[in-house]
From TrEMBL:
Phylogenetic classification of the source organism: Eukaryota, Metazoa, Chordata, Craniata, Vertebrata
GO CC, one annotated term: keratin filament
Protein's name according to its UniProt entry: RCG50690
Species whose genome carries this gene: Rattus norvegicus (Rat)
Keyword annotations from UniProtKB, A to Z: Coiled coil, Intermediate filament, Keratin
Signal peptide: none
InterPro entries: IF_rod_dom (IPR039008), Keratin_II (IPR003054)
TM regions (residue ranges): none
Coiled coil, from the record: 5-60, 133-181
The family this protein is said to belong to: Belongs to the intermediate filament family.
Pfam families tied to this protein: Filament
IF rod domain residues: 1-185
């Protein structure tokens, strides 16, 4: 009879140890889920910030492009003179006009080149931010999957804990009954 009591006592201690281990694992899993949720919140805030920055850069680019196009269209050289002297002013005027037109053409080309470069830089930046946004959304999706998996594991651990508690209660009851039987004999 003493052997049976010792056996039940050993089983009871094993069940207590398993329950403690399951509770510790549950606490660890809860910490992991909390950390994953905080990470998700941070990533979402980062994605929103990047979206706002992309929208701001697009608006800035549109404003600068519009301003530069207005500036370029206002640049033109018109030179005409009404002079009755019979100097060779026509060739001088033609030469000066050609020089000014060349300067205006060069300025226009430089401005267009500069804005083309700026446009390409903004496109690259917008593309990079788009990639960052896609990567962030993918990370959020992965974190959501991990949260679902952890919730499933937590539910499983809760069921194990409930089963262990039921087994412990049953073992305690059997132990008490065995103890009563042993005392009765």
């Amino acid at each position: 009879m003493q052997g049976t009591v010792e056996d039940y006592k050993s089983k009871y201690e094993d069940e207590i140890n398993r329950r403690t281990a399951a509770e510790n694992e549950f606490v660890t899993l809860k910490k992991d889920v909390d950390a994953a949720y905080m990470n998700k919140v941070e990533l979402q805030a980062k994605a929103d910030s990047l979206t706002d920055e992309i929208n701001f850069l697009r608006a800035l680019y549109e404003a600068e492009l519009s301003q530069m196009q207005t500036h370029i269209s206002d640049t033109s050289v018109v030179l005409s003179m009404d002079n009755n002297r019979s100097l060779d002013l026509d060739s001088i005027i033609a030469e000066v006009k050609a020089q000014y037109e060349e300067i205006a053409k060069r300025s226009r080309a430089e401005a267009e080149s500069w804005y083309q470069t700026k446009y390409e830089e903004l496109q690259i930046t917008a593309g990079r931010h788009g990639d960052d946004l896609r990567n962030t959304k993918q990370e959020i999706s992965e974190i959501n999957r991990m949260i679902q998996r952890l919730r499933s594991e937590i539910d499983h651990v809760k069921k194990q804990i409930a089963n262990l508690q039921a087994a412990i209660a049953e073992a305690e009851q059997r132990g008490e009954m065995a103890l009563k039987d042993a005392r009765g004999k």
